[in-house]
Specification:
The chain is of the alpha+beta class. The chain is built from 3 helices and 3 strands, in the order αααβββ. The chain has a domain at 72-163. The termini are far apart.
Length: 176
């Protein structure tokens, strides 16, 4: 019987037998692979690793946001205190605002990445008198892993109010 010029086999039955043998061998290899338990941990680890790394990255990013918010709150607290001390020293409100803004920058608040608002008297809260200084710091933070969900920068806003009391007579007692 002459060979088929395309396949090189002599008959369709021979081709069918070879195909059956290949499918049987493939099925046998697949079932052996499924029943073999060696390396299962590697497969599970490889499938879970992107999820674990994504969660770790998101946790680091949220920690960075909280660190920057705490840093901004510290700068606002110190700026409000500096402004209140300036008011206490009978400086003008404009000078107290400048002193508060300088103190916020001195303690790590980047004025290029945010806004410093120093006001006396404060606009809201319990202490709305001329003896109080309010500092509001607004800053936008970049997104890293969370940029998958939103491209908008994260906005943080912190507020601090400091007030001073009127002078009173002081008494100093030294004991030895």
């Amino acid at each position: 019987m002459p060979k088929n010029p395309v396949s090189g086999f002599t008959s369709d039955e021979e081709i069918g037998g070879i195909m059956s043998l290949v499918f049987h061998w493939g099925f046998e290899m697949f079932s052996t692979w499924l029943s073999n338990r060696r390396g299962n941990t590697t497969v599970v680890f490889a499938l879970c690793l992107p999820v674990v790394m994504g969660c770790a990255g998101l946790g680091v990013e949220v920690g960075f946001w909280q660190f920057r918010q705490r840093q901004a709150q510290t700068a606002a607290d110190l700026a409000a205190y500096a402004g209140a001390v300036s008011l206490r020293n009978h400086e003008s409100v404009a000078q107290a605002r400048e002193e508060a803004a300088a103190e916020a920058r001195l303690h790590g608040f980047e004025a290029t990445a945010g806004v410093i608002n120093a006001m006396s008297p404060p606009q809201s809260g319990n202490y709305q008198d001329s003896r109080s200084m309010e500092v509001v710091l607004n800053q936008s933070l970049p997104r890293f892993f969370s940029s998958i969900m939103s491209q908008e920068p994260l906005l943080i806003s912190v507020r601090a109010v400091a007030t001073y009391q009127e002078e009173s007579d002081a008494c100093l007692l030294a004991l030895s």
